[in-house]
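Annex B, item 7. Sequence and structure tokens for protein A, then protein B.
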Amino acid sequence: MAIGDDNDPTTFGRPPFSSANLLLNCLYYRDLQAGAELARRLKRPVEQERLTTMSNQLGAAIQKHCWDPRDSFYYTVDVQCVDRRAELIPTVKRGMDMSWRALPLRIQMFTGFLPLWCGLASQSQASAVVNHNYPADDRFRAEWGVRSLSSRETMYSLEFSSNPSNWLGSIWIVVNYLIWKGLIGYGFTHEAAELASKTARLLVDDLDRNRSLNEYYNPDTGAPLSHPGFVDWNLLVLEMLRTKVGTDGRGW
């Protein structure tokens, strides 16, 4: 609860410590990398090595447990996988050992794109994620950006919710930004330019019509759904405009 994308159904409402949420793990991975870089600049090699090791271990765990080759997508995983046979049936021979520590929660949140933002995905994985899940249909790709939850999920809802805020399909500028950053990093310049344009148009229209920015928006109409006066990460659009990429791959 209150992990950032507050009502992410892969975590919200589930038992405590039952989900390895992709948002938290990807943010932590980047924090560890930043800590290692700070330690390098401060000439503290012991801390640099420790933080680098931690980031490498976390990155490997995300790749091992969260990547789903069937769907070409990254998923938050259930980490409640515990072999309880010795406790429940102690008189029966155990047989084959349990070879998995996590199971994918196959609910398609925007967080499935975050390993691209982190730079964790291989080029072939990034191509599979984008080609199979972003431009192919309207599960995520909307008129005004990227839906926070796939429109194919049964939990998809655009109702207003002040607490927790609604991440069940609404457009959030921070979502547009993080996915845009991943697209840029892996060379998807056409998709990145289109997403930057949608994001800028959404905020300009909001200012023109309502004299304000809002926290999140309807993905199909662009109508604001909550909290007029919200600024915060909406200002990430400035970076998207400064480094906007044309279809020829050059910045402009």
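Protein B:
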Amino acid sequence: MSGRARSALRAVPRPLAVLLGAVLLLGLCWALLTPPFQAPDEQSHFGYVQSLVEGPGLPGDPERPAFSTEQLRAHDASNSDQTAANLLAKPEWSRDVWEAWQRQDARIPAGDKSDGGGVNPAAGNPPLSYLVDAVPYAAFSGGDFFSRVTATRIVSVLWLLLTVAGAWLLAGEVFGRDRLLQLVTAAVVGLLPMVSFISAQVGPDTLMYALWTVALWLAVRIVRRGLEPLPAVALLGVTGLAIVTKATSYALLPAVLFALGVGLWRIRDQRPRVLRIALSALVALAVPVVVWAAVARLSDRAVAAQVSGSSGPGGTNYRELLSYIWQFYLPKLPFMEPHHGAGLPAYHIWVQQGWGAFGWLEVRLPDWLYRLLALVTVAVAAAAVARLVAIRRRLHLPTLAVLALALAALFAGLHWTDYHQTAGGLAFMQGRYAFPTIAIVGLTAAQALTWIRGGARQVAASGVLGGLFVLQLLSFALVLSRFYA
């Protein structure tokens, strides 16, 4: 190891280094213990990767099967399709079946890996994360099918480490170099079981979480420290990469452009510098987006299928939209037409699926624990808001605006899409869709702790970390019981 590398490692604060090690270990456990394709849409995401590496290229050709012959045989051998979301079925663990599949897999023709590439639920996504996943896939191309799945999962875990580091840096901007509050913020991000689970599967979400977290850190850094060329270009470049990872990331633009605007306004009397920084930053945003747009147009694909498909053909009834949002979070009033089934969707989506619903969301924590976690969620959020009110004269309003814009834009987009999809009879909303802003959840927990002073704050922080570890262990036990017992 070079001296520069050793110096960089020594510069990592010890609490962050220990946390990153724990997050890596837990992520690898999730990657290795979760059976293949027992996570939402993982088979579609892996089919996308295989189509890029083996051919024919970007998936979505309606004349081709969704998955290759090799992948379909792996589905059958592992019983993955029958197991998904079905508590009465389990994966196939027979040694005889495994050995028979290995013999068959060892002599499959090359064409059986490249005859997929058809329409699947992931086919409309931009390609960046799949291109990244193509690297471990290609590196293990000599191994069997499941070795390639595992290698791709492990790379996904590495992005979670970037998300945790980004949350630590973001907390450093918000709270100063308060190591305890930085640790709590980053621990919530890295140790929340559902984030760990999703980040250890094949798909674009884990890269998107990392890019959002880094973008929020850079945006807050700019509004607090002032605008310099490199952070401005990095902010817009990261945002562009997030957009070509998943179209959800268009929701980053209001917060990012606000931060850039604040930075430019503060140096408005330096007109040449303003123009130079603004142009460089916008080019950094435009390059990945324009390149992908050109590729999509040439291949007759939607540039942002998730965005363009979010409105139903019947248009928008704004009175019904407001009623839908009310009923998502609050009980239905007598004069309202029902939009949801029994119960509050906010509880089922943000609490149950946000804290932990594994597999294809069928592996659940005990009901009493969800109720307890709902109380914890409300209490922490209320304490954080009360703390903001208490210190309102000392708040840095541009920082608050960046974080609020990111939250508002993401949730507005999610609810807009969910309203139109449910109106068409399709289920859309899932708890993991809020995880691009998971670093803000970590900041909220840390903000709540600022009520506590002295050694009691350390005790409370230890309780947060310990509680998250216990929840991780319980989640592992449920997953092991579901798939292996």
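Comment on protein B: The chain is about 70% helix and 0% strand.
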